Amino acid sequence: MTFISSDSVAYELIAAASSSVSFSKTHEVTSTSSGIECSFNGGCTYAIESDGLYASMLDSANYIQVCGTECVLRTDLSDQSYAVCEMPSLATSYSVENYKVAESVDLAGTIFPEESALLHDGLTVESYESTSNDCEFGMTFKEGHVGVLDEAKIFINFLTSKTPYVDNLEFQGSDDGGSTWTSLHTFGEELHEGWNYIDYRDDDVVKPGYNSYRFAGSESGACRITEYKLHGVEAMAESSDSHVCTPKIFLGTTELTSTTPLNDVTYSAASTPKLLSISPRFGSVLGGTTVTLTGENLLGGATTVLFDNRECTVTSASATEIVCTSDDKPYVPDTPVTKIEIEGLGLVATQGLVYRYVSLWSDTETWGGDIPPMEGESIHVPAG
């Protein structure tokens, strides 16, 4: 296999020798490349030169890991001499806040106290019947990680009195194993039956990021709720604008060691292109729409834009703007996805912005070649 050297490809050479796996021969190390710098959104390729490693990586139990996350094997770039993988995105406190590199989900850390687990089972039928004057329930994330929150919420069923909750039940965060807690919200008279939300979604609101969260009350009955959810992203507790780590190779649960260490990779803000807007946000399924994407740090090498896996042909590109012409798109019931790759940088942080293919009312093709309905006429839109 022949590789062309670029900023987005690292050439790593390791001695292919391990007690847990046999290779046809040991590769003699002749040179190593410097590490690569990539977008927080990932997308850069990382290559390891070693006879037989690629074949071993085809076993799903074996994998290459970058900063704690699997680096997906690129079978189209790998062969017997090289194992090449595509670097994943890296969710840190910094990258989640500044680039939204990961989609928010219902978080599932370690629940405490143990008997409150039913409050987080998604069924909203059980109640936590703690009658302690100092009650609590919450969750903790793994060491070195935090939950960056978009939302915290509790569900109360059969509310007979607000007294135990109002100006008493607090939502708190801790970064020292629960030795000290920071108050984030105190429930007041607005509390009601059903879901009660603490919202951190607005752009001007600082999202909390703690290793542990809890709801705590000092009066009996303050923790009598039916369900709770923390919605957000579990991320590395790293507030710096860059993060360096050394990739690892695992054969099952065993880390493969080598006489030649793998070179580091760096995720950095300087190498992270950021999308700010798409105009227009809608375009015809017939294609041919001129789309302008504005952002920051968009200029690198060759740029590829995909809307729903359909290429938007780039006609111009600068550090702040990419202009492309959309392709057509046959109807497929899927979720819109925008993917932009810039050679030498990796994937653009699209921040959830999408371009939507639509059938325009004015297109005769929308109506099977007939004239679109006129004012006063009725139409029927079938499900789907």
> Percent of residues in beta strands?
35-45%
Classify the oligomer: single chain
CATH topology of the largest domain: Jelly Rolls
Uncertain stretches of 5 or more adjacent residues: 1-33
Helix content: under 10%
Number of strands: 29
End-to-end span in angstroms?
Answer: 46 Å
Whole-number radius of gyration?
26 Å
CATH architecture of the largest domain: Sandwich
Number of contiguous helices: 2
Average predicted confidence as pLDDT: 86
Shape: globular
Largest sheet: 7 strands, mixed
Question: Tell me, what is the CATH class of the largest domain?
Answer: Mainly Beta
Strand order of the largest sheet: 1-3-6-5-4-18-19
Total number of distinct structural domains: 3
Question: Can you tag this structure with a few keywords?
Answer:
3 domains; Immunoglobulin-like; Jelly Rolls; 7-stranded mixed β-sheet; mainly beta; 384 residues; single chain; 2 helices
Describe the protein:
It is built from two helices and 29 strands. It is mainly beta and 384 residues long. The chain folds into three domains: 9-91 and 242-269, Immunoglobulins (Immunoglobulin-like), CATH 2.60.40.10; 105-236, Sandwich (Jelly Rolls), CATH 2.60.120; 273-358, Immunoglobulins (Immunoglobulin-like, Sandwich), CATH 2.60.40. The strands form six sheets. The chain has a seven-stranded mixed beta sheet. A seven-stranded antiparallel beta sheet has the order 21-23-26-25-24-27-28, with no helix packed on it. A hairpin with a 3-residue loop joins strand 25 (310-317) and strand 26 (321-325). The radius of gyration is 26 Å and the shape is globular.
